[in-house]
Amino acid sequence: MSVTVRVPAKVNVRLAVGAARPDGFHDLANVFLAVGLYDEVTAAPADTLRVTCTGPDAAQVPLDATNLAARAAVALAERHGISPDVHLHIAKDIPVAGGMAGGSADGAAALVACDALWSTGASQDELLAICAELGSDVPFSLIGGAALGVGRGEQLTPIEVGGTFHWVFAVAEGGLSTPAVYGEFDRLTAGAQVPEPTAPPALLAALRKGDTTALADALGNDLQAAALSLRPSLADTLTAGTAAGALAALVSGSGPTTAFLAADADAARTIADALAASGTCRSARVAVSPAPGATVR
Ligand code: ATP
Q1: Which residue, by CA, sits nearest to atom 14 of ligand 1?
Q2: Where is the catalytic site (predicted)?
Q3: For the residues 128-151, what does the mean pLDDT come to?
Q4: Is residue 285 part of a domain?
Q5: Environment class of 292 (CB within 10 Å of its CB; exposed 0-12, middle 13-18, buried 19+)
């Protein structure tokens, strides 16, 4: 018997970053939106913990105990006093180190898969608590949809979404390290008064109404300047997508994936084709949002 769980990527439609705290983390107001690019994690009985991975970026995924899927299995097993003997196979379609929370997604998916495989019967609250221990973005991968995250981004309040949004994601060559991007944010904001991070009411209203034009006006990412500083060529990708008709363009999370909001499915296809032809990115993917969280198939 095995259990397969499908889990979505995310885009941050508003990532407001506060000043660095004494512990080095930043307070965030982080509006997550799950998008329909998916990884699948399959958990199967095994003699020992083992991780395998397939997909275009598989070579960049660590298969040892640092893999977030493996860490999730160990965390659940420890809490229930069992041995984490499981084969976790990740069918990876979410870009790696792309600012789309692919590793976090696999952590949430592995947790749900192992809970079902081992019949540990963890409540949603227990699963969310384990997710928060694994990383700031992991709880959102569990619940999907849309949510406002405060604290380090892990304290979530779900947001209702009243329609479908059409996106294009330009996948860049190579990744960007999230800590390096925060380090650059600290460097760029040193000595400046960094405002308290908040989520604009207009953005939350746009999500609730399913209003694409209003969402385009309210998108924002405080890490964008830092990502562009580390990878100046991303400006060319943003320009190419905007020239092809995107209503708005932004760096996704810590990058280097860039996200483009399109008026409808046809516009998304046109923007993706133009980006792919522009030579400013490795590939361009269309996806719709919102998408459901980690779900057993
Ligand atoms: P975020 O958006 O949460 O900042 P990201 O999408 O930029 O994350 P990930 O794809 O999660 O980045 O990968 C970041 C790093 O995490 C990788 O370079 C890899 O070393 C490590 N990692 C651990 N587990 C996984 C996993 N299951 N899949 C991908 N990367 C993983």
Answers
A1: 97
A2: 10, 137
A3: 96
A4: yes
A5: middle
Its sign, for the CA torsion 95, 96, 98, 99, is positive
Are the beta carbons of 90 and 252 closer than 8 angstroms? no
Residue 35 belongs to a domain with what CATH number? 3.30.230.10
Residues 193 and 140 in one domain: no
Our answer on whether the CB atom of 251 is closer than 6 Å to any ligand 1 atom is no
Pocket flag, ligand 1, residue 57 (CB < 6 Å): no
Six-digit token string for 166:
């059409």
179 shares a domain with 151: no
Q: Which residue type does 163 have?
A: G
Residues 31 and 131 in one domain: yes
126-133 contacts, C-beta under 8 A, 24 or more apart: 126/79, 128/156, 130/72, 130/75, 130/76, 130/79, 131/72, 131/107, 133/75
Domain that holds residue 212: 165-289
Q: Is the pLDDT of residue 99 over 90?
A: no
* Chain segment 182-203, per-residue pLDDT in tens: 999 999 999 999 999 999 999 9
Q: Three-state SS across 91-124? A: ECCCCCCCCCCHHHHHHHHHHHHHHHHCCCCCCH
The token duo for 193 is 């008064």
Catalytic residues: 10, 137
